[in-house]
Structures are given as C-alpha cells and as structure tokens.
Amino acid sequence: MDGRRIxxxxxxxxxxxxxxxxxxxxxxxxxxxxxVAPTLEACMYDAIVASRAxxxxxxxxxxxxxxxxxxxxxxxxRIDHRELAHLAGEVTLHLDSESIVIxxxxxxxxxxxEADRVALDDLGAACAVIAxxxxxxxxxxxxxxxxxxxxxxxxxxxxxLAAGLSPLDAFGGGPTDVKDYGRAVADRLCRFVDAxxxxxxxxxxxxxxxxxxxxxxxxxxxxxxxxxxxxxLHGARWLLGSDAYRDALHAMLGQLRHQLGDGFGxxxxxxxxxxxxxxxxxVKDHIQLPEEVPLAAFVETPAAVHATQALCAAxxxxxxxxxxxxxxxxxxxxxxxxxxxxxxxxRHPAVLDAIRKVVAAARAAGTPVRVFALLADLAHYLxxxxxxxxYMMCTAELQRMILQPRP
Length: 407
Known about the structure:
Layout: E1 5-7, E2 9-12, E3 18-24, E4 34-36, H1 45-49, E5 53-56, H2 64-72, E6 76-78, H3 81-84, E7 90-94, E8 99-102, E9 126-130, H4 133-140, E10 149-155, H5 156-163, H6 167-171, H7 175-194, E11 201-205, H8 211-216, H9 236-239, H10 243-260, E12 267-271, H11 277-287, E13 295-299, H12 302-306, H13 308-313, E14 319-321, H14 323-331, H15 349-365, E15 369-372, H16 375-384, E16 390-394, H17 395-403
Parallel strand pairs: 3-4, 4-5, 5-6, 9-10, 9-16, 10-11, 11-12, 12-13, 13-14, 14-15, 15-16
Antiparallel strand pairs: 1-8, 2-6, 3-7, 7-8
C-alpha cells in the first residue's frame, strides 16, 4: 500500500501545494493531523480546525464545514468511500493533482500557490467571513492593508460551535438558561469587538440551525427529523416561531450595550434564509429590535432575489448575497452532494443574472449590498457583474489577497 496514490476531488484549497501528516480517524482533535471521516459534521468542529487537512468521502465545495475549512486554509479532499478505509499512518496530499499518497514523503516540500491576479482594490469594502476570534486576528495581523476589511461576518451557529454553546438545549430550559445563552453570545462578541481595528464592525447572522445540523449539537432538546432540511424549518421561518430566541437576543443586546458602551453600534444583525419582504418585516416585529440596531437581510433564495426592492423599502440596513445557497436553489443541485457536482455551478448564467438583479436593485435604492465570492470565481464576477459595495470572502482567501504583492 505504501506509495499508492488515490485520486480525489479538492473541495477546499490551502496555502500550500503539498500537505503531509498522520491520519486521524478518531473524530477527536489531534493538532496537525490529517482528519479522515466519511462526512463533515458540526459536532466535529474541534477536530476539523485542529487538522492540517481533511479527507472525506461525501460533501460539496460549499457545505458549511467545508466553508469553515476554506476560511482557515485547511484543504479538503473528497475521495471514493471505498478508498477511505485504506487511509492510515502517514499520508501526503497533493493539491495540484487533487490526490493523496499513502506513506511517508521525506522529500515533500510546501510551495506557495500562484498569486491570483485580482487586486485588493477590486473588492470594495471587503467583508471577511469568519468562524471565530482567531480569524479576526489573522486578518488584522496582515499589516496596513488589513484596514481595507470593513467588516467581519459570522453565523451565530459557528460562534456557538467555537464557544461550545448548545442553543436549542438552552431554549428548551427555563428563562435563566435562555438569558445565560444570550449573555454568553454577547461575551464572545465583545471579544470580537476588542480585536477590531478602527472603522471595522461585526455582522452576526442570527441563528440558522437546520434540523440535521441541530441534531448533531443538541443533547437534550427534541429535534424533529425533516425529509429535506435545506428547505425546512430554519432561518427566518424558525425565528418567527421562537419566543425563547427573541428573549435570548434581548439578553445579548443588553449585555453588549452594558459592556461596549459607545462600541455597541459596531455589532450589526442579519436575518437569514428569507423568502420576501413580508417575512423580513414579521421577523423584525417579532424580535422587537430596538430602532438603533441595524438589521440586514440575507438574500439566498430565488424569491428573495425578486423581493430585493421591497426588502430595501422595508428597511433592510444592507443586503448580503449568499451565492452558495443561491446557486443550489436556482439549479436544484444540493451543494453538499458530490453526485450532482457538475450541475452545481456558481458561475451559471442563471446565478449571475440573480446576483446582477440584486445588486442593481439595491444600488438603485441606495442600500449597501455585498456579494459572497469564492476566490476562484472572483475575476469572473468582476468581469460580468455590476460592482457591489463590497465582496465577502473566506478568511484564508482574503488573507492571501491582502498579502499578495501589489503590481
């Protein structure tokens, strides 16, 4: 078996062309190892972020855990499930050839990937998509150009993963558990704000736990099984039915105001997985958000694309275009299913037309709009789309752009 090469498909790249390490099949954190697992689940967060690379046998380029890996610069290689059993001991990932070699590689040498041709100036007011505090530190340690990153965007469920919080368990408890959860989120956000440079802010995408993800991070609260969780009870639909989350949110805001004082305005909120402006307004009314707290809208469904003008009129402080889910729903191709990978295309004309419509409508309304882009797609988007106010990118890819030499 030693020296055998297994061909795969690279789901997330990294800063090196060659990655060498010892296989970790335990599911527990092992610093610097190559994590080997059939699927990447939220409950494996600690093991994933401790790894130098990940090898799996399912999933797509833009799954949630794959996105965390991309943000951290952790390569993810998908191979045939029958080959997964052969991985043990030392292995070497070759990113250029999208393959893995079993056995030691004494001559393996890390090389920098070729710098991308897109310039930092092209990003507008850049937004870094982060998983925890370490990502803010990574960006802001990049030197003077770090100030070009105007905001940091984090999903509340990713914050929970990093902080070891179980939101549904808290919401299933009493009022004290609910308030404790809100205050714990606030404490984490305060640490984020302390790490910001002048002029930077945090945007929290409010809790969006799909039932399949919720089940893996919940110990006590019942989680109903759904036949199609992607299109089930999550996002704005779930927020509208949860009084406990509303109460936790108010506890969080009260704690933020108390701890941050004038810095309270550096934390903004965003509504996830919206259908239309009526739903946005219902969420806003339900959570009883103070007027001074900006509330953005996340556009990631075809219905929301067509509601862009109405979302702006309903008072959305800004728009975030979630191209990963948008491509999934426009093309009816599950972004986590490698069997339909050829159908899932972030550059498909229908997807580009949707982004174009959102940006044009938002700019006409005077509402700031930011578009998520993979580094591999960025030049394509810049050539074919009207300019948004800024692009959102994963931490590791944005870091590469900040550090690349200027022409």
